[in-house]
Amino acid sequence: MDICGMCNRESVLQNSHAIPDSVFKKILRSNSGKAIVVPSGGRDPIHYSSDSWDTNLLCSDCESLLNSLYEGYSLRVLRGSVGGVRRHDLGVTFSGIDPCRLASFFISVFWRAANSKHSSYGKVYIPEPWNGEIRDYLLKNTPIPINLVTVQISRLIDRTPKNGFTLRSLKSVVMSPFFRKHKYGKYSFCFVFEGFFVEIFTPGLTYSLRRRAGVILKDKRVLMVPYLDIFDVPEIVDALVKGYGKYLDGDITFKD
Ligand SMILES: [Zn+2]
After folding, report:
1. How confident is the model over 242-255, as pLDDT tens digits?
2. Domain ranges, residue 135
3. How far, in Å, is the centroid of ligand 1 from the Cα of 144?
């Protein structure tokens, strides 16, 4: 028996995912069993993988709690089957959403990644006391204060005129999360999955910075998710350049 990372009870631990298993499954189904993995910072080239980055972390109760409270609902929102979705020149607007559940979903991915032993999540870390505080909020299904964690999301696009990534190919890209160091010793952690770029700030953004587009605010049921060109994300460009040799060799082909 092991100790559950969330409720601290002795239990048989489950295969827990940070980035949801269903994200990997959806990609694997449409891509002959392989996801396109863009490692960040390491020496590995871009590669196909059938590994869904799971490790034993949570008991079955905590696992299903996170899935039923946050994950199922949020993936339906992001995939457009709950609430309204409108595409326009600046991005995608989601309406009729429960912002606290959506924010808690991304924070639960972040928290699980930080507490996972899988090497793909090796760059994600939450210092105490925040790690414990976030765990308690998730476990009690209480909205997480925005000054503790702020979530900002963008929809990735590629404005390259010819032979660029299509939206469908961008949805097949999973990137190992990386961090950014900001002023005053603050950090953010960045995730790429389902065609979204998710940046999570802990401690949260200051009041004036929370007005940026794509920040999930707890009293706003409408969320405008701005477009973000993949070539405007230096870490993605860097990972793509490192993996480019492999790409030219024909080992990796990005299909529609
Ligand atoms: Zn548990």
Report:
1. 655 555 455 444 44
2. 2-248
3. 19
